[in-house]
Amino acid sequence: MNKVYNTEIISVGTELLLGHVTNTDSRDISEMLSKIGINVKYHTVVGDNPERLLDCVNIAKSRADIIITTGGLGPTCDDLTKLILAKAFGLELEKNQAEYDLIYDYIRGGKLVSPNNYSQAMLPQGCTVFHNYWGTAPGCAFEAENKIVLMMPGPPQECVPMFRQYGLPYLRKLSDEQIVSHSLRIFGIGESSVDFMFRDEMNSMTNPTMAPYAKECDCLLQVTAKAESVEEAEKMIRPVINDAAKKLGEFVYGEDIECIEERVIELLKEKNMTFSTAESCTGGELAKRFTDIPGASAVFKGGVVTYTNEIKARVLGIDAELIEEKGAVSYEVAKEMAEKVRELCSTDIGVGVTGLAGPDGDGVHEVGTVFVSMATPEKTYVKELHIGDWRTRSFIRRMAGNHIYDMMRRYLSGYNVEWSR
Questions:
Q1: Which is nearest to 177 in space by CA: 64, 36, 39?
Q2: Cβ proximity of 130 and 138 under 8 Å
Q3: CA distance between the termini of the chain
Q4: Selection from 300, 308, 380, 369 nearest residue 340 by Cα
Q5: Rounded to 5 degrees, what angle do the CA atoms 194, 196, 200 make?
Q6: What are the distances in angstroms from CA 233 to CA 12, 50, 157, 176, 242?
Q7: Are 73 and 138 in contact (CB under 8 A)?
Q8: How would you write the pLDDT of the chain (421 residues) with one tens digit per residue?
Q9: Taken in order 291, 351, 319, 354, is the CA torsion positive or negative?
Q10: CB-count burial class (<10 Å; 0-12, 13-18, 19+) for 231
Q11: Is the peptide bond before 294 cis (omega within 30 degrees of 0)?
Q12: 324 near 334, Cβ under 8 Å?
């Protein structure tokens, strides 16, 4: 973009302040905006109070070029976003007949339709309407007082697709420049290590730019370029991406993908191989994460959740005396889990996970101790992890899963499986 546009996102809803609902809208919108080079400078959360909302809008007007609101567009008396935004910019709300008719068509099948539903068709005069294909409350955009305002519904299943379909194209039109981003997904080293590795380069770069971002259990390195055409931007980005990938080496598991299991699916398909899972502390999360991805059925045969010692012995056939002697959380049991499930499901690869996700320990190991294993036709690999007793239960489970998928990725790619973190 020729001008640098700074953005403030205002999320409206008392339920956000009370913690009843997690504010994912700001995160998702910020991530989408970063990919087109728009700077988000502020996130604000405000309850359903007209005076406080107006104060927040006036503050945003003083420091941002683009104001994006989420929430407060529905039919109830506390849905005040449109009213307050219109007031702040001296605009009237007017009935949009097309949206009124569409709302009527959408809800007329209901047994009880209250008149307040139609208030959702009252929109700021002269605005660009964003039709809501995912609900009833339309979004909109307008420009006034040298500010650009976009209003989105609050429910994430409506907000995110609406912003992707309408908001991003609307903002792209602000400039003749094209903005392109690509990201390398990384597992095995954290954001701080990546930052240290590329700090001098990042500090000297202006276009393209490069920045690391931490995710829950891995991180990414994003490269963004601005140019007159997409092709020119791509040419600017490619050498930077290639150089970064070379430096990061085996820690890179993919480019422009969302999760490590996506890469594992690709590799399994390329090799025409299958796998199966035996899970204890992850409780089926490994299988769920994999089968959430379309195409998983081509390479995943099945899995078992062997949460108790009895089921480890009865279903997988692990020697009960071994479990008693070594303990369920052990190198030996993890090794058996991978080997037995591979045999049980007749797959090329079997993986196993057993450990302590908390909050309680077993009197021997600290919480966060996890053994992950992978049985292949040539060898069985077992890795002992100490993820941290201060970590949350969900984090420990997800990190254990990432380690297993990384073992598979490394094996299928011909990399060293037994590297130590």
A1: 36
A2: yes
A3: 41
A4: 380
A5: 115
A6: 36, 44, 32, 13, 15
A7: yes
A8: 457 789 999 999 999 999 999 999 999 999 888 777 788 999 999 999 999 999 999 999 999 999 999 999 877 666 799 999 999 999 999 988 888 877 666 665 554 455 666 788 889 999 999 999 888 889 999 999 999 999 999 999 999 999 999 999 999 887 777 788 899 999 999 999 999 999 999 999 999 999 998 888 999 999 999 888 889 999 999 999 999 999 999 999 999 999 999 999 999 999 999 999 999 999 999 999 999 999 999 999 999 999 999 999 999 999 999 999 999 999 999 999 999 999 999 999 999 999 999 888 888 899 999 999 999 999 999 999 999 999 999 999 999 999 999 999 999 999 999 876 5
A9: negative
A10: exposed
A11: no
A12: no
Token pair listed for 346: 């007749």
Measured in degrees and rounded to the nearest 5, phi and psi for residue 137 equal -80, 115
- DSSP-assigned states of every residue in 40-65: EEEEEEE-S-HHHHHHHHHHHHHH-S
Residue 81 near residue 71 (C-beta atoms within 8 A): yes
Identify the residue whose tokens are 């590297």. Answer: 419
